[in-house]
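TEACHING EXERCISE
Course module: macromolecular assemblies
Task: Read the component lines below, then compare them to the predicted structure of the full complex.
Student: A.B.
Group: 4
Components provided:
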Amino acid sequence: MNKNNFCIIMAGGIGSRFWPMSRTAHPKQFIDILGTGRTLIQQAFDRFNGTCPHDQIYIVTNEMYRELVKEQLPLINEEQIVCEPARRNTAPCIAYATYKIIAKNPNANIVVAPSDHIILKEADFCNIIQSALDCCTENDWLITLGITPSRPDTGYGYIQYTDCDNCNDSRTKKVKTFTEKPNIELAKSFISSGDFLWNSGIFIWSAKSILKAFENHLPDVFQIFNEGLGKYNTPDEAEFIKDTYTICKNISIDFGVLEKADNVYVYVSDFGWSDLGTWGSLYENSKLNANNNAVIGQNVLTYETKGSIINVPKNKLVVIQGLENYIVVESDGILLICQKDEEQQIRQFVNDVMLKKGDKYI
Amino acid sequence: MNKNNFCIIMAGGIGSRFWPMSRTAHPKQFIDILGTGRTLIQQAFDRFNGTCPHDQIYIVTNEMYRELVKEQLPLINEEQIVCEPARRNTAPCIAYATYKIIAKNPNANIVVAPSDHIILKEADFCNIIQSALDCCTENDWLITLGITPSRPDTGYGYIQYTDCDNCNDSRTKKVKTFTEKPNIELAKSFISSGDFLWNSGIFIWSAKSILKAFENHLPDVFQIFNEGLGKYNTPDEAEFIKDTYTICKNISIDFGVLEKADNVYVYVSDFGWSDLGTWGSLYENSKLNANNNAVIGQNVLTYETKGSIINVPKNKLVVIQGLENYIVVESDGILLICQKDEEQQIRQFVNDVMLKKGDKYI
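Instructor-supplied answer key:
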């Protein structure tokens, strides 16, 4: 294992699309949403634990989730839990964690990954990560992992690539453009063009390369974090970060840095990835029973019920008749029944619940 | 209030059609199923409390429910709770309670009524009961209350009547036949013929008349209970009844006595009656909101949901989207979702639950 390998796992999201399973106080990444026995963040940690020394895996999250992280990842030390004072999207979060890492090891290579995705082919994934980390040691490249798309999904961002003259690996391509979530026509044209990939949000680069890119493309963000040099990993850090975050703008790494940089490369990948952004994607990634239901819960009886997601507490007795393509979730005493095709309404439900019943339910 | 007025409330049923709200350990009659603040048996008691002295209202039930009765009806004394050692349908239950009553008052007039029906027009009902009780004082009649049918319901028994020459009240008719639950064609022909009523299962007679009818039409049942004379309301009763029930046959009062007797009269009634035998009938008798949903529960949010019964614990947050004509019930930690039109399957569900998960859930 290369002692320069570091990892940043981003775990600050609140996952409202998975309400009521995912709650503000206990969001998606801290849930064993697939019923595998490990929560999503535990799976993310396990995945990188072979590539990076476990004391070099950083979890960036909100103060509210510190105890959950400690509880679920006992191998993580207190100093590896990086708490943001406010939610400012991915660019500030990555800048902050990178400064902490470079203060420890100026030669650090870093994988940045979300905490709430699933990856089915773990060995393939680890090989790609290792290869990308090696590549970053030698090149001033910003690498992103692009997933060969299997359908014109409108829930993902896309990366357009071109062939790469100076790459010695056929999986490596030069990034031409990043595209936000497209409408369905555009998504279909992306698929048929053959040179678009899904943007996985997983990045690999050296600490030096990404800070240089910040300096070039997001100089204001670079500047305010750079002023903390000498304070990272010291007792002065917390106070400094508190002020810094207050003035820092809210911007994503894709929009703030990667879309502007000309040294961005993409690894064409296929490791059974899903961002698990919706109940629909959870359904696609779940083991289905004979009636095409994805059932989590040990006391569930179904009749004339198909294509549904049923996710209820282990010992709860649930009898369901006559539902097709529904989501039935009970979590923490809250019950949601919703058509699978209408799950985009869940955000509205959560909003209504907050307005009508108070934020204790969200 | 006539001191000869007595009442027998039958409360031994287990109400499996209302599972999971109605459970073997806590059946329908002990539930505030309409959300009015009083359980069905409490409503039944309240209804007769004005007509009969409260210490002359007997509750016939199973030993298992003794504590529930005491808890829900604090005005009832221990000796008014008549516990059957086994379930033997209505004829033995009525014979037993009648012998207890006649041992106290040979001139008793008795109303027999189920504990789990609803009656919306309570004043009309009380007038009819009073009038029928008065009538029984003067006549050796067995009176049943027949409900003017509003639809060809296949869930009810029917009573065919003919005009009554010796009746001085136009509401009183002579019973011609009792009919079990008909099929839909038959039910329609009953309605169009105009001389059929729904059988409410509410009876009024003198203790003497009903015992005479037992003697004539169910002599074996009469005989075994008659042997207990001198033991009713004494310490010897329990032992005697235990043996008696063991050998007593299982038979209904309708089939065993009323269909055979020639002194059966029916009061044509209309007091907003339902036997609440099904979720459908509960729905018909519930207050509906703007979307025609019958909702019990204070934290229920619905979207694109119509014609449904939602009955959940008071404080449980439930969000439902996209259900039409469903039953959603959560009770005692058990959740049932079922199409309203398919509720006849509930008995099967309960059976399956018992076989697959054990009887703790039924």
